[in-house]
Amino acid sequence: MSFFMGREDIVLENIDSSHYEKMFEMFIYKYSIMKASFPNMPDRFMDKELIYKLFDNILEDNFGIIALQDDKVLGYLMGYQIDEFKSSKRGVFTPEWAFAYLDFDIFEIIQKNAFSKWKKNKCYNHTITNYTTEEKFFEKIFWDGYGMMVIDAVSEIKKIEDNHKKDLVFKRSTIDDIDEIEKILDEHCDYMSSSPVFLKADKSDNRKELEKIYGSEKEILWKAMSGRDTLGIMKTVDGGGEGSLTVKDENNLGIGSTHVKEKFQNMGVGKFMIKNIFDYAKENNYKKLSVDFESFNVQARKFWLKYFEPVCFSMMRRIDDRV
C-alpha cells in the first residue's frame, strides 16, 4: 500500500522486509553518533542480523510506516501497541531502534500518519525512546506535547568514596530473607504509588517476584544491614536490567529494584549500597553499570544522577481519549 501525503513527491508505505537494509543504515548512523559519546555501549547493535530480528519482532503484530522518495528511504517509524500502557488505555511504545529520519519535516509526515492509525486502534498515548545525543529531537518533541517519562543512564566502573556508616554490612540476600524483604518491597510499592510518583505498583506480585529472583542465575538481591536490621535493598541483573535494549550486553551490570526503608533514608545507606555495587562490578570484570528510573520519581532521580550519565530519554504524549 502506498499513498501521497504532505509533499507530493514523498510516498508512504507500510514497512516490509524489503526496506530493512536502508532502515538499518539510517539507524546505524544514529547509533554511531551516540557511541562516539558513550564508547562502552555494545558493538552488537552494529549487527545487521540482530536489528533485522528486532524489525521482524515489532512487525509481527504491529505496523510500521516508511517514507520514500524515488526509492530513497527518508525515514521510518514503528511501535508496539500495548494494552493498559502506563494507564488504563492502550498505548504505543517506540524503542530507540524503531525510528529514524532525515529531517523533522519527514518525521512529522510519518508521525501524523502513524498517529491516525494508532488512534483508530484505540491507542491514546505514545512513548518514544531516543539517545540523549539527539538534543534537537527532544527540543522538537517537547514542543509537540511530549514530556519526560523514563531515563536510562550508564556509568563506567569507578571508585565511590564513602567514609560513612562503618557499622554497615553489605551482603547477598537469600530465600531465607523472603518475609523480611517482601515487607520492604511492599513499602517500596506504597512509595511508588503515592505522591509525587503515582505509578501503579501491585504488592500482590512481590512474593512471586522475590521467588523468581532467588531462583535466578542472573539476578542478585543485595541488602544493607546494621546489626540484625535490614536498612535497604538493591537488585542487580547480569547483562542489564529492565531498561533500554541498547544498554544490555554481557559487559553490563544492570541495577533494578532499589529501596531504603523510610526511617533510614538520608543517612547514607543508598551511597553505601551503590559503592558496594561498583566494587562488585569491578571485581567481576564488568565494563559498565546501568540503571533506569522515572524522571518524576524525584528522590530516585536526584540519587542516580549523582553516579550515572543519561544515555536514553523516553518521552510520552497523551491524547484526549474523548476525541
Automatic annotation (TrEMBL):
Pfam families with a match to the protein in the record: Acetyltransf_1 (PF00583)
Tell me where in this chain the N-acetyltransferase domain is found: 246-306
* CDD domains from the UniProt entry: NAT_SF (cd04301)
**Keyword Disulfide bond in record:** no
Query: InterPro entries annotated for this entry?
Result: Acyl_CoA_acyltransferase (IPR016181), GNAT_dom (IPR000182)
Family annotation (Gene3D superfamilies) = 3.40.630.30
Does Nucleotidyltransferase appear among the keywords? Answer: no
Task: Please provide, alphabetically and separated by semicolons, the GO molecular function terms listed in this UniProt record.
Answer: acyltransferase activity, transferring groups other than amino-acyl groups
Superkingdom classification of source: Bacteria
| Keyword line | Transferase
Q: What's this protein's name?
A: GNAT family N-acetyltransferase
- Organism this protein belongs to: Geotoga petraea
